[in-house]
Design brief:
The complex is a heterodimer of chains A (about 230) and B (about 750). Chain A is of the alpha/beta class and about 230 residues long. Chain A has a single domain, classed as 3-Layer(aba) Sandwich (Rossmann fold), CATH 3.40.50.300. In chain A, the strands form 2 sheets. Chain A has a 6-stranded mixed β-sheet, with helices on both faces. Chain A has a 4-stranded antiparallel β-sheet with strand order 2-1-4-5, covered by helices on one side. In chain A, helix 6 links the parallel strand 7 and strand 8. The two termini of chain A are about 15 Å apart. The C terminus of chain A is likely disordered. Chain B is built from 22 helices and 22 strands. In chain B, the strands form 3 sheets. In chain B, strands 1, 2, 5, 6, 7, 8, 9, 10, 11 and 12 form a 10-stranded mixed β-sheet that branches. In chain B, strands 13, 14, 15, 16, 17, 18, 19, 20, 21 and 22 form a 10-stranded mixed β-sheet that branches. The chains are: A alpha/beta (about 230), B alpha+beta (about 750). At the A-B interface, helix 2 and helix 3 of A face helix 10, helix 18, helix 19 and helix 22 of B. The complex binds adenosine-5'-triphosphate (ATP) and magnesium ion. Adenosine-5'-triphosphate binds next to helix 1 of chain A.
């Protein structure tokens, strides 16, 4: 079976630094992979390449049959909207939109009929226990609540892949656990997940496989593919 | 690292925008003021420059020898004759030719515009007023002798229609003398001067003399009604430039508050912070204003060249004081515009400055988002539309810039259209393009009615009216005034009434505003009129729009009048030149002149139009730059939100749509407000300016805002806003989201 995500010999160079070197990396459908590594080792860069937010200097990125590295800007945006959900350390919600509007954003950008989108958003908010905050603004929410809004937004268009860049980094331990449980639940229902984290315990707990990056290359393929 | 880099490039872009805005404003100001200064008493300036002749006199060579005329401080005597040259078999109108070896001299230093002065026999230099495009390089035949046109020159004193070498006029009809007097402000002083210089000459030696004051009157009369409009627009241009410069500069400084806060937290004193910001704006402004002044001088060359021709002056240049005042003024303005917000920033604490500089008014934005979210519009558009509410101060700045620009466009279009109608009324060359005049002088023939028949019989003739000019006096008004008498309907000639109606009987007259004002009369009154000693009473039934002779004229109807010239209108589709040539051929051999209405007035109009459109474009550009600046600041500030939106799948064109939607609402609003503002300005300024020129305006000349024009104008604000936002919008669509997402 071809993997859902396939990076082949990917190098990403910036003016000053080389973020990734000849990286080859794959993720199967339904897998949960943790990416670890020191600060600056290229973890965020890896996620950005998968999401089509950035383009490799050389090598190829294929996601769900799409040659991501070859997409146009507009094509990459549509690709993200349809297949990728992203979650960040600092939530990255829009302050001047309500929780509901933040969650609806990806579907509105894609032109999903409003009625259907609202039903989906209501389901997600209920599942993530943020439904009573629908008309609240993000600034009023706690960190954990904000991250749940961000997760709801990421899931809005039923993406094939969820990319989480240190989703618990800005949360206290208990709240972080909470968010992590959520992601694990999602993975259990078949959601492919790449999780970037610094915390080996978190990585071990939620991922079937842990990949460690050192200076932009895979250091120790650990765990192997379970199942 | 990236934050600092972003900061630096943001400042650099702001500097570029400030430089561009100041450049465009500087150009507009130099242009406006340059033309303004040139329009201030252009005749007097040119007259002084050429040491114009206070009196032009003609002497009889049989009564006084040339040697008896020469005197210190005067030019001449020059041989002079009136000739009728032909060109390619066509007879031209009579021409005063003066034999003059040297264009300079103590009096009437003739300026050679094109080609060169005559060097010997067989050459002729035409006065600019006489030289048409058909005559350049041509050969004229005078009394069977060929004369090649070698140059075009101009004499403010209008001492000749053409100049030749003195050898070409061995038997002059008269001798021309050009005098300057110590005292020449009034007709009496000029007359006294003439008496002094002719003392001791044999009686009858002086054939006649002309004072420069009459030339001055007609020169000033031609431009007087136009200058006030020019002034109005130039002033408007300068004011708008100033407003937008203030707007952009202060906006840029406010946008730098965040950095001000950072500098303070690094230990800068308030004084250093203020100085740093003022200097940061002043440096690009100095560059902009230098280039702007340069560009203004360059752009004004063709405009002033045309103006010089119409004003009848030598070459005009931008007055040197303008090149000093405009840069100095603009820089002072920029410094002040930067100083006020910078001082405020200097007083803010570091934290206050950081938060003021950074935090948009989220709560305003939210209310707008809620309202707009209900609209069934694409999300990207509603996101953009709500944006101005999050940054009300910046939105207001942008609104003001677009408002100024759109108001200028609205006013300029109205002014241009009104001027077109005004010129039509004053020149009536479009409605009655052809003039058929009987020659005066020795070979004049008595009027016999066959001329009218010839004109009427010619295919293509739509209307003809015969015109005679008589001198009348009105008791109570000193001197005589010209009365233009028509032998029939004149409503088709393009002349316009300000109020009342046209005459229907010989007892009724229409008069210009000037006469009504100076006699304290109004339409409906009666007045006495004396002609050839006979007095009669006439009723003033209308106020005609006419500015020649300061409006001291009378227009009347007399079906039995003996016409000395005819104005002719052609049926649509008739070619003017062909018609003219056919008529000329039909009239061959008779002392009758078929001429096109003078083009000089049209040129004046085209200068004005050139200046109005140049200034309008400049001001629209400046307004667009105002938008550009605001959008750049805004998208830089929102780089984080833009990154988030991209990460969740906003396409580049959606980003562009969002940014443009953010200014479109303001643009539309500004355009809609600018419409009544421009209309009101037009309604207010034009009559005021006309009154300053001593005339009323035909009401129809103000009704220029038709519905189709209004529709286009309503979109002008939107257009400025969109064009201003387009470039930063594409930049926003291209910015890389990844770095933005890492910061909080
Ligand atoms: N836009 C960029 N321009 C220049 N260099 C960059 C850019 N983005 C990343 N880098 C560099 O690439 C390398 C990898 O960065 P990346 O953000 O992927 O690291 P990371 O593993 O996510 O680190 P952290 O754990 O601190 O988030 C670093 O050296 C970084 O400085
Ligand atoms: Mg990272």
């Amino acid at each position: 079976m071809t993997p859902l995500i396939q990076l082949t010999a990917v190098t990403k160079r910036y003016d000053a630094a080389t973020a990734l070197r000849e990286l080859t990396f794959e993720v199967g459908a339904g897998e949960a992979v943790a990416v670890m590594g020191a600060s600056g080792s290229g973890k965020s860069t890896l996620l950005n390449l998968v999401a089509g937010l950035d383009r490799p200097t050389s090598g190829t990125v294929a996601v769900d049959g799409v040659q991501v590295h070859a997409l146009s800007e507009a094509g990459a945006a549509r690709f993200r909207r349809q297949r990728i959900g992203m979650i960040f350390q600092f939530f990255n919600l829009l302050d001047d939109l309500t929780v509901l509007d933040n969650i609806l954003l990806p579907s509105r950008l894609g032109g999903t009929p409003a009625g259907r989108a609202e039903i989906r958003a209501a389901e997600l908010m209920a599942a993530l226990r943020i439904d009573r905050h629908a008309t609240t603004y993000p600034a009023r929410l706690s960190g954990g609540e904000r991250q749940r809004v961000a997760i709801a937004r990421a899931l809005m268009n039923r993406p094939a892949i969820l990319l989480a860049d240190e989703p618990t980094g800005a949360l206290d331990t208990a709240t972080g656990e909470d968010v992590l449980d959520l992601l694990l639940d999602l993975n259990r229902t078949g959601q492919t997940l790449i999780l970037v984290t610094h915390d080996p315990a978190l990585a071990a707990r939620c991922a079937q496989r842990v990949v460690t990056l050192v200076d932009g290359a895979v250091a120790a393929p650990a765990g192997g593919v379970a199942r | 690292m990236t934050a600092i880099l972003a900061g630096v490039s943001r400042r650099r872009l702001t500097a570029v925008v400030v430089a561009l805005v100041v450049l465009a404003s500087g150009t507009a100001s130099v242009l406006g003021l340059g033309l303004l200064a040139a329009s201030d008493a252009p005749f007097d300036h040119a007259f002084a420059q050429q040491s114009g002749a206070h009196a032009v006199a003609a002497f009889d060579p049989s009564k006084v020898p040339a040697t008896g005329l020469a005197m210190r401080g005067a030019s001449g005597p020059f041989p002079q004759a009136t000739v009728r040259p032909t060109i390619d078999g066509f007879r031209l109108s009579p021409m005063t030719v003066v034999g003059r070896a040297d264009p300079l001299g103590p009096v009437d230093k003739v300026s050679v515009d094109e080609g060169r002065w005559v060097r010997g026999p067989g050459e002729i230099v035409l006065n600019r007023e006489f030289a048409g495009p058909r005559l350049a390089g041509a050969t004229l035949t005078v009394d069977g002798r060929p004369l090649r046109v070698v140059g075009v020159a101009y004499s403010v004193s209008r001492t000749a229609d053409a100049w030749v070498s003195p050898q070409d006029l061995p038997h002059p009809q008269s001798l021309q003398m050009l005098y300057r007097f110590a005292q020449a402000a009034t007709e009496d002083q000029v007359r006294a001067g003439m008496i002094a210089v002719t003392r001791g000459l044999p009686t009858g030696a002086l054939i006649g003399s002309r004072s420069y004051l009459s030339v001055r009157l007609s020169a000033n009369g031609a431009i007087a009604p136009i200058v006030p409009f020019l002034v109005a627009f130039a002033v408007l241009g300068v004011v708008m430039s100033v407003l937008i410069v203030v707007n952009v500069v202060s906006g840029s400084v406010v946008a730098g508050y965040f950095r001000i806060g950072m500098l303070k937290s690094l230990g800068f004193t308030p004084g250093q912070v203020v100085a740093a910001h003022v200097v940061q704006v002043l440096l690009p402004a100095a560059l902009g204003v230098t280039l702007g002044a340069l560009l203004g001088n360059l752009l004004s060359v063709p405009l002033l060249e045309d103006a010089a021709q119409v004003y009848g002056t030598g070459a005009l240049t931008v007055a040197p004081w303008i090149d000093v005042v405009v840069p100095a003024g603009l820089l002072t303005l920029v410094a002040l515009a930067a100083l006020v917000p910078a001082l405020r920033a200097g007083r803010l604490s570091a934290i206050e400055a950081i938060t003021t500089g950074r935090a948009p008014r989220a709560e305003h934005g939210r209310a707008a988002q809620r309202l707009l979210g209900g609209l069934r519009l694409p999300r990207a558009v509603t996101l953009g539309l709500a944006r101005p509410f999050a940054r009300p101060a910046r939105a207001a700045t942008m609104l003001a810039a677009v408002l100024f620009g759109a108001t200028t466009i609205t006013f300029a279009l109205g002014l241009g259209s009104s001027l077109y109608l005004i010129e039509d009324a004053l020149l009536h060359d479009r409605s009655a393009p052809l003039e058929v005049a009987m020659m005066r002088g020795p070979d004049a023939v008595p009027y016999d009615g066959s001329l009218l028949k010839t004109i009427k019989d010619q295919p293509g003739t739509a209307h003809v009216v015969g015109i005679d000019r008589r001198d009348v006096t009105i008791p109570g008004l000193s001197g005589s005034l010209p009365m233009t008498v028509f032998d029939g309907d004149v409503s088709w000639t393009g002349r316009q009434l300000i109020s009342g109606r046209w005459f229907r009987t010989p007892d009724e007259v229409v008069v210009p505003t000037g006469l009504l004002n100076s006699m304290a009369l109004s339409v409906g009154d009666s007045t006495a009129l004396e002609q050839d000693g006979a007095r009669r009473t006439v009723h003033i039934v209308g106020e005609i729009f006419e500015t020649d002779d300061a409006g001291l004229q009378v227009f009347a109807l007399d079906p039995a009048a003996t016409a000395t010239r005819y104005e002719v209108a052609l049926t649509p589709g008739t070619d003017l030149e062909t018609y003219r040539n056919t008529l000329q051929t039909a009239l061959q051999g008779r002392p009758i002149d078929v001429s096109l209405n003078d083009e000089n007035g049209r040129r004046l109009f085209s200068i004005l139009l050139g200046m109005i459109s140049t200034l309008t474009v400049l001001l629209a550009v400046v307004a667009g730059l105002g938008v550009f600046n605001a959008v750049v600041l805004d998208t830089r500030e929102r780089v984080h939100d833009l990154g988030v939106l991209k990460a969740i799948g906003m396409e580049p064109r959606q980003t562009i749509a969002m940014v443009i939607a953010g200014v479109a609402g303001l643009g539309l609003l500004a355009g809609l407000v600018a419409l009544p503002a421009g209309l009101a300005l037009h309604r207010w300024i034009l009559p005021v300016m006309a009154a300053a020129a001593g005339t009323g305006l035909p009401p129809g000349d103000l009704d220029v805002y038709t519905w189709d024009r209004l529709t286009i104008l309503a979109a002008s604000g939107l257009t400025i806003a969109i064009l201003g936002a387009l470039i930063p919008a594409t930049w926003a669509a291209r910015t890389h989201p990844a770095p933005a997402l890492r910061t909080e």
